[in-house]
Amino acid sequence: MKKEPQNISLDTLFELSEFFKFFGDTTRIRVIHLLLSGEMSVSAIAEKLNLEQSVVSHQLRILRTANLVKPTRDGRKIYYALDDEHIGEIFNTGLAHILHKKKG
Amino acid sequence: MKKEPQNISLDTLFELSEFFKFFGDTTRIRVIHLLLSGEMSVSAIAEKLNLEQSVVSHQLRILRTANLVKPTRDGRKIYYALDDEHIGEIFNTGLAHILHKKKG
DNA sequence: TAAATACATGAACAACAATTCATATATACA
DNA sequence: TGTATATATGAATTGTTGTTCATGTATTTA
After folding, report:
1. What band does B5 get if pLDDT is binned at 50, 70 and 90?
2. Using alpha carbons only, what angle is made at residue A29 by residues A27 and A32, rounded to the nearest 5 degrees?
3. Which residue from B13, B98, B55 is spatially nearest to A20, judged by alpha carbons?
4. CA–CA separation, A34 vs A65, rounded Å?
5. How far does the CA of residue B65 sit from the closest CA of chain A (Å)?
6. What angle do CA B45, A22, B30 make, to 5 degrees?
7. Digit-coded pLDDT (tens) for B44-77
8. Residue A17 to residues A81, A92, B20, B26, B65: CA-CA distances in angstroms?
9. Lowest CB count within 10 Å: A72, A99, B102, B104, which one?
């Protein structure tokens, strides 16, 4: 069952692992999960997840820098939304794996 | 563009982030990538990736504990293979995202 | 059974990442 | 323009994780 090896550069593999890192933190995955339902303000996210505003802001900055979420200001509030259609796909692929394993 | 919220337990979200963590390390993603082409012995992996045997063994233990790879002994050598069909899918979904972004 | 080979593992160290706390900035509104 | 609200950010602290180095275990073969 040996497939043809894909030729992926070391650099790309590094980027790939960096990318998966964003999903590898509970706080961030909860934020991502929440935003799958639609955009939400920082304070709403913090309240919904029962986290300190500062924690949410810090993690949002990480996601924003990576272009996984994008902010839109409306008055004093800033609404964050997922920036990329792929994110839901990756989230759901991983979720399917977890749920599949849970069944045994 | 608001979707219906999926009801996913905190516990499942935690497991999901733990799962993505395995992909969030350069060494492990390189090992996974290598094993996508088929099973390989520890020493072969180490040689191919130009890593110390100890580094590879440590990371393989992490992947093995998580049931992402499974070992098969043949004499002195131990061959590792990916244990789950989903792994390639997740790898490729992430890869597609990276390559898509590279294009701009 | 002694030596060589292949792999695993424990402990120490170093690097990194997340949270906390205090404070800064930006906007709205009285 | 002063105050309140919403968010961002820097520094310190703490917890986590990967690598290194030394050593242990299993298997083969002379």
Report:
1. low
2. 110
3. B98
4. 19
5. 14
6. 10
7. 999 999 999 999 999 999 999 999 999 999 999 9
8. 23, 18, 9, 5, 19
9. B104
CA distance A26 to A48: 14
pLDDT tens sequence across A18-36: 999 999 999 999 999 999 9
Q: Which nucleotides of D are covered by protein (CB under 7 A)?
A: 5-11, 17-23, 26-29
- Mean pLDDT computed over A41-62: 98
The yes-or-no verdict on residue B21 having pLDDT over 90 is yes
CA of A59 to C1' of C6 (A): 43
B66 token code pair: 């998580």
Task: Report pLDDT for B84.
Answer: 87
List CB contacts of A52: < 8 A, sequence separation 6 or more: A46
- Which amino acid, A80? Y
Q: Is the CB of B62 under 7 A from strand D?
A: yes
Cα–Cα distance measured from residue B101 to residue B88, given in angstroms and rounded to the nearest whole number: 20
Show Cβ contacts of residue A84 under 8 Å, excluding neighbours closer than 6 positions: A67, A68, B97
Contact A47, A33 (CB under 8 A): no
> What one-character-per-residue DSSP string does B50-104 give?
T--HHHHHHHHHHHHHTTSEEEEEETTEEEEEE--HHHHHHHHHHHHHHHHHHH-
